[in-house]
Amino acid sequence: MIQFHHVSKRYEDKQKSTIAVDRVSLAIPEGTIYGIIGFSGAGKSTLLRMINGLEKPSEGQVFVADQEISQLADTQLRSRRQKMGMIFQHFHLLWSRTVRENIAFPLEIADVDPATLNKKVDYLLERVGLTEKADDYPSQLSGGQKQRVGIARALANDPSVLLCDEATSALDPETTRSILKLLQEINQELGITLVIVTHEMSVVQSICRQMSVMDHGKVIEEGTVEELFSNPKHPITKRLVTNELKSVDHVEEVLSIHLYDLRNWNSIQQLISRHPVHLQILPGNLNVHQPVISFRVQGKSEDITAVKSILQSANEEGLSC
Ligand SMILES: Nc1ncnc2c1ncn2[C@@H]1O[C@H](COP(=O)(O)OP(=O)(O)OP(=O)(O)O)[C@@H](O)[C@H]1O
Questions:
Q1: 297 alpha carbon to ligand 1 midpoint, in Å?
Q2: pLDDT tens by residue, 245-265
Q3: Does residue 60 have its Cβ closer than 6 Å to ligand 1?
Q4: 18 lines ligand 1 (CB under 6 A)
Q5: pLDDT in tens, 50-97
Q6: What radius of gyration do the chain's Cα atoms show?
Q7: What domain count does the chain have?
Q8: 40 lines ligand 1 (CB under 6 A)
Q9: Could you tell me the CATH number of the domain that includes residue 276?
């Protein structure tokens, strides 16, 4: 379990003081895949970096498995950090070392004997699908392959937690899917807790179980991914969900419905709201003699089909013409 108790982080310099994280209390269960989302500058990375002590809170406490990270002395923190892997948007690989040497690096730091080290690196190369690339340099790899090296390196010391800071933001959608699949397998096979910071709702939607939304340093909404996607309450969450519905995975259609009795619109809308679609009523179509509502629906094609059938049965049941 990772816990934040009333955690704040303030950056001070001579000119100004910035509150990056503002009184956050949060519990991330062990073994889960947890998403932290929000717009740029919301405080996501700062919150993540407090889990492995790369940042210290100005106030409050951060616990990982009942150990107060924010109170550890430097040497204790270094050894604790070995059990918390981290991957980054721009990979942070060592460019003068081969793939094999990059993966071996944390094991060298941990003073692992050469035989165990080689065995471990071979296993990790195979696990992330890079055995063939072992002697290549990072500059010879694609973005997805570089992130696979990052993941293998992060797993070298058998971490219990893997922190992912915008790990797929520099990748195309296809490569993103393959990296997310790998992360999901790692979570299932090794039971590692994954904390994923991203501004891409599609990432959270595809692999996270629980999530929180941050804005101006605060956690403004939290819950299961299903809850927050189907019934976002905070305006920022709604905006994030709406933007996501415009993403490549979703389609858009303009539908119309004729309503003799406009009061029925509320019951139809209630039925539609059970589906995660974004619905925008288009102006200018309401006519007193033949009322027509036209609206733009964005969502997955199966949800749009469901909306169409709701409209169709509304017609058949005489709710509309
Ligand atoms: N080392 C620092 N010194 C001063 N201010 C900082 C520092 N790191 C972050 N900040 C500020 O803290 C706030 C939160 O930054 P943070 O990087 O945590 O946000 P974020 O949600 O991860 O944003 P992004 O998605 O753009 O990375 C921002 O206003 C940022 O400018």
A1: 35
A2: 555 566 777 787 776 655 677
A3: no
A4: yes
A5: 999 999 999 999 999 989 998 888 888 888 888 899 999 889 999 999
A6: 24
A7: 2
A8: yes
A9: 3.30.1370
50 and 163 in a single domain? The answer is yes
Interface ipTM above 0.90: yes
CA of 36 to the centre of ligand 1 (A): 14
> Where in the sequence is the domain holding 87, given as residue range(s)?
2-247
How far is the C-alpha of 154 from the C-alpha of 183, rounded, in Å?
A: 12
Q: What is the pLDDT of residues 124-145, one digit of tens each?
A: 999 999 999 999 999 999 999 9
Minimum-distance ligand 1 atom for the alpha carbon of 55: 1
Instruction: Specify the ligand 1 atom closest to the Cα of 48.
Output: 18
Task: For ligand 1, say whether the CB of 49 is within 6 Å of any of its atoms.
Answer: no
- By C-alpha distance, which of 279, 259, 256 is closest to 269? 279
Is residue 12 within 8 A of residue 19, CB to CB? The reply is no
Judge if the beta carbon of residue 43 lies within 6 A of ligand 1.
Answer: yes
Looking at the fold, whether 78 and 61 belong to one and the same domain comes out as: yes
Last residue of a domain, one of 188, 219, 247: 247
Rounded CA gap, 62 and 66, in Å? Answer: 9
pLDDT given for residue 246 in this prediction: 55
* Residue 230 and residue 198 share a domain: yes
Q: Same structural domain for residues 28 and 159? A: yes
Q: How many residues does the chain have?
A: 321
User: What predicted TM-score, i.e. pTM, was given to this entire model?
Assistant: 0.77
